[in-house]
């Protein structure tokens, strides 16, 4: 391995140490692990470190064809220590700013969509419902009016026919008899109910 390759390896491993520090803080910020053991947290931790290891070997493969030397780990440790000493506070502050900005943008877009899309759609649907109910009520009223007119016409024609044929006297007698029978049935049922 040439000196140039070793130099690039050292620089990339120091940068990777800085990267590990930043990603570790980001991971902790989003996961907010509890002190007690939890299976899901253990799985997340394992996945996090597997991804970090895969990235490390990918970078090593690009820089020096995947050769692992002792100074590689020292360079990563130096980069991580430099991050902890110099960049941690600034990065965490910047991370919080970015998170707040993303949350603010999300709320802004949500309110904008509510004002531009959801409220007008609700208004249109309510208006459509009101119009439909108005049309249905109007049609129902017209239908009732037509049925009343038809019924009046039919009853008038029947009265004329009954008057001409003099069947109205028979029907009047039948109606009177029917009323008497209904009264008798009511009286019988009320006597039965009292017993």
UniProtKB/TrEMBL annotation:
InterPro entries: YabQ (IPR019074). Pfam families: Spore_YabQ. It comes from the Bacteria. The chain crosses the membrane at residues 7-24, 36-61, 68-86, 98-118, 127-147, 153-171. Keywords: Capsid protein, Membrane, Transmembrane, Transmembrane helix, Virion. This is Spore coat protein. It comes from Alkalihalobacillus trypoxylicola.
């Amino acid at each position: 391995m040439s000196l140039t390759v070793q130099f690039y390896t050292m620089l990339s491993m120091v940068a990777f140490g800085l990267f590990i520090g930043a990603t570790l803080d980001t991971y902790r910020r989003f996961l907010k692990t509890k002190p007690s053991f939890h299976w899901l947290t253990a799985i997340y931790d394992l996945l996090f470190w597997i991804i970090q290891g895969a990235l490390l070997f990918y970078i090593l493969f690009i820089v020096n064809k995947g050769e692992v030397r002792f100074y590689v780990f020292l360079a990563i440790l130096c980069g991580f220590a430099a991050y902890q000493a110099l960049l941690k506070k600034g990065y965490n502050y910047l991370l919080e700013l970015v998170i707040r900005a993303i949350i603010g943008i999300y709320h802004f877009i949500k309110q904008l969509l509510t004002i531009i899309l959801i409220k007008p759609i609700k208004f249109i649907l309510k208006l459509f419902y009101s119009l439909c109910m108005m049309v249905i009520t109007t049609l129902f009223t017209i239908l009732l009016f037509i049925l009343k007119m038809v019924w009046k016409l039919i009853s008038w024609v029947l009265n004329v026919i009954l008057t001409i044929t003099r069947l109205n006297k028979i029907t009047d007698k039948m109606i009177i008899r029917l009323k008497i029978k209904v009264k008798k049935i009511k009286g019988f049922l009320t006597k039965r109910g009292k017993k």
